[in-house]
Amino acid sequence: MGSTIIFSEPMFGKLQMPFSEDSFIWDNSFEKEWRKLKGTKHQIMEESLETIFLLWIKQFLGFNLKILEGSGLFGGEDVIAIDELNRLHLFELKRKKITENTLRQMTQYMYSHVFEDAEKFKTKITQNGTLSESKILLFLSGLINNIETEKTGADYILKRWKLKKYQEIEDILGPNPSKYKFSKKFKDQRDLKNIFMSRILLKSYPSISFDTLSLTAESWFKTGTFSLLNSKTKTTDQYKFKNPLFSNNHVYWLIAPDIDEQIYDKIIEMRGMDKDFRILLINVRRRNTNAGPEFMIKFRKEVAVERDNIERKLLNFAEDVRTNSNPHKFEKSKKLHLQFYEKSQPSSRKNNGGNLISPKIISYPRGGEPEDFIKEYLS
């Protein structure tokens, strides 16, 4: 029998205006509402899935990440982030299904970074990335309209001008807007362009205030999730110095509503090569209300109780050491914790009716149980 991957029972959630951090609610009573939303009119664009995941990432992973980039400009990954263990997390999101081609894409991304220095890579992103407060505003505006904002530009604006004669377009581009005027106005003006595009996108939803959405985007950008991006002068060297668990290990995430079961063996084969591949199944359906769009969410994750338990404790410990800035504790624990985590790579067993156990812990650096090991360094 071939290997398999076991997923948890589905969870159901709702996301609604004002799209702040607490706008996301898990409640399995939403299942009935989710099932009612059938047909293409309730489907979402891939960028909408990316925006929901990008902003409410803790709701899906169970822990927070520092977001570095969210537009796929560096190596092709949809989202790039760093965790408290200083690991890079690379995400590939699909609107329909994880297929062999999805796995091939992620493998290409993986090997494209194999010769890169992890710290230089992170510094390059923080200094040159496009994710900003205005970009988050544009993502939220795109989410409201269910539109791929990367594909909107001069053509979209000119079409809006011809159909609606929006005064805001003439105010910025002058009489008789053109592609030339658009390009000239926004040359090297990324933030100005993002704000302008957001204003025009929100014209489709008069009930949603541009100023209110701008404050929401500002709030998101100032949270810990995006804290590495708040100052372009900051470098990740500072973050590395305070981080007790530096590692070059990457975590590779494949995310979609469904998965082609024929690639289970290939994913598990990658794990056998010590590549930390993980899967999340996120299915989002959309509906319009008087207050704005709502999103109903069905979510399933892999059963990996032991791995998740160990990882959560290590992340909490890392955050504790970083925030308390204890260099002695940092040096004392770094090597042991890295060894401990290396024993925690995902593993699998044949499909005999049992769950996937990940990780399969063989031994500990100093013996004993995981609880004992963690408690010693939390004390």
Which SSEs are present, and which pair or pack?
Elements: E1 11-15, E2 24-26, H1 31-36, H2 46-55, H3 57-61, E3 66-69, E4 79-82, E5 88-93, E6 97-98, H4 100-112, H5 118-128, H6 133-145, H7 154-164, H8 167-173, H9 179-186, H10 190-202, H11 210-221, H12 236-242, E7 250-256, E8 258-259, H13 264-272, E9 276-289, E10 292-301, H14 305-324, H15 327-342, H16 370-378
Helix pairs in contact: 2-6, 6-10, 6-11, 14-15, 14-16
Largest beta sheet: strand ordering: 2-1-10-9-7-5-4-3
In terms of DSSP E residues, the strand content is: 15-25%
Oligomer: single chain
Radius of gyration, in angstroms, nearest whole number: 22 Å
Structure class: alpha/beta
- Summed over residues and divided by their number, the pLDDT gives a mean of 78
- Number of helical elements: 16
Main β-sheet description: 8 strands, mixed
Describe it for me?
The chain is of the alpha/beta class. The chain contains 16 helices and ten strands. The chain has helices at 31-36, 46-55, 57-61, 100-112, 118-128, 133-145, 154-164, 167-173, 179-186, 190-202, 210-221, 236-242, 264-272, 305-324, 327-342, 370-378, and strands at 11-15, 24-26, 66-69, 79-82, 88-93, 97-98, 250-256, 258-259, 276-289, 292-301. The strands form two sheets. Strands 2-1-10-9-7-5-4-3 form an eight-stranded mixed beta sheet. Strand 1 and strand 2 form a beta hairpin. Helix 2 (46-55) packs across helix 6 and helix 6 packs across helix 11. The longest helix has 20 residues, at 305-324. The radius of gyration is 22 Å and the shape is globular. The protein starts with 10 loop residues before the first strand and ends with a helix. The relative contact order is 0.17.
